[in-house]
Design brief:
Blueprint lengths: L12 H17 L6 E2 L13 E8 L13 E9 L4 E8 L9 E10 L2 E8 L2 E8 L2 E6 L5 E7 L1 E2 L12 E4 L18 E2 L5 E2 L10 E7 L2 E8 L14 E5 L3 E5 L32 E9 L2 E2 L5 E3 L2 E6 L2 E8 L15 E5 L7 E9 L6
Antiparallel strand pairs: 1-10, 2-3, 2-9, 3-4, 4-5, 5-6, 6-7, 7-8, 8-9, 11-24, 12-13, 14-23, 15-18, 15-24, 16-17, 16-23, 18-21, 19-20, 21-22
């Protein structure tokens, strides 16, 4: 199992600032957000508050008719953090596209049937609430109001059928238990919901390895992360999609975070995703990965690095990203082929609809 030593709070402040600026630059440039909203919810946790919210931000408490600018599109991430506490990340598009978006982070606490929000961010005091599927947060004394409704997002590639030439590793048909014939026995469980997951506590533990080795591949994977509000960082919804047994695209609950090289859709310990395209836990998410294995000479020396292009929930978050060594273990030898691995890192992550298309060598 690949070591998960990278923690989000370990980088120096300069590196953290670099990560924040990278994300803000991506937001500013509009790096693709094709998710469809308001699909049927797949969430089963008894928490009606966490998740995505979309709506508007009014810059002034006066009306447009009286000269105020029109409200801007806005979104929020409400992240459950256990003990009735929530973290609320709010963002509004700027009036001038050349300016930075308004982005603030506040804390809230569940009181009765409402999350009450009261905090200071961006030089201002803010107060509001989340209740009944609606979020309202107002700037105190200066005008400014977020008004949003809860939405359920759906990846545009969720349920994507395998092409005719695809190798179907995990067929998906609702209500039908998938076959594990394409995988080595690792104690994983197939269910009547058409999904697989690691063995329950007390059962056999280990990663799920494909029987077939792959080199260059286009891979489709769907995964669903558990709702674990009391856990943090690498302990929260951790798994991974590992190509050629050595090169990992991280799976993690990174909803509402500034992503680092250990977060979801990162090339693990190498490159953070350009954009955090995470859906909240308990939502089905998708990876569409194009992977070219490293090219080795007769002595096993790498003469071309492996490369990844990753679409996460339909958003391109890695493009021709390379890795100098196997991810998470730079002392391990590189490999030109190997099994596909779905990682067992101890969290109950579900997988379904996994298929691959073999590709020719990458053009020089």
């Amino acid at each position: 199992m690949i070591s998960k030593h990278l923690l989000r709070k370990s980088p120096a402040s300069a590196l953290a600032l670099f990560g924040l600026l990278t994300v803000l630059l991506a937001c500013r440039s509009g790096f693709g957000q094709p998710a469809v909203v308001n699909q049927l919810s797949t969430q089963t946790a008894g928490d009606p508050y966490f998740g995505d919210y979309q709506g508007t931000y009014s810059f002034s408490d006066t009306s447009v008719a009286d000269g105020a600018p029109a409200p801007a599109a806005a979104e929020a991430k409400v992240v459950a953090e256990g003990n009735r506490r929530y973290r609320i990340v709010l963002r509004a598009k700027p009036l001038d596209p050349a300016e930075w978006p308004l982005q603030i982070e506040l804390e809230g606490r569940l009181q009765g049937e409402k999350i009450m929000i009261d905090g200071h961010a961006g030089g201002h005091d803010w107060r509001g609430q989340v209740a009944g599927g609606a979020l309202n947060v107002a700037k105190q004394g200066y005008g400014g109001l977020f008004e949003m409704k809860r939405v359920i997002k759906k990846s545009p590639s969720e349920g994507l059928p395998p092409p005719a030439d695809a190798i179907v590793l995990l067929a998906f048909q609702p209500g039908q238990k998938p076959s594990l014939d394409q995988w080595k026995d690792s104690g994983w469980v197939a269910t009547d919901e058409g999904i697989v997951h690691r063995a329950p506590e007390g059962g056999k533990r280990g990663d799920l390895f494909s029987k077939r080795d792959f080199r260059n591949v286009r891979l489709h994977v769907e995964f669903r992360l558990p709702y674990e509000p009391d856990l943090r960082e690498q302990a929260r919804g951790n798994s991974g999609v590992i190509l050629a047994e050595r090169y990992e695209v991280q799976v993690l609950d990174s909803f509402g975070l500034v992503p680092g090289a250990g977060d979801c859709a990162a090339i693990y310990d190498v490159a953070q995703p350009r954009v955090n395209a995470a859906f909240p836990p308990l939502s089905w998410q998708t990876y569409d990965i194009t992977f070219y294995a490293p090219k080795l000479d007769a002595a096993g020396k790498m003469i071309r690095r492996p490369s990844f292009t990753v679409f996460w929930n339909g958003v391109k978050v890695q493009e021709n990203q390379t890795a100098a060594t196997p991810t998470g273990d730079p002392h391990r030898a590189n490999a030109a082929s190997g099994s596909l691995r779905l990682q067992d890192h101890g969290n109950l992550v579900y997988f379904r609809n996994v298929w691959a298309q073999e590709l020719p060598d990458k053009p020089e």
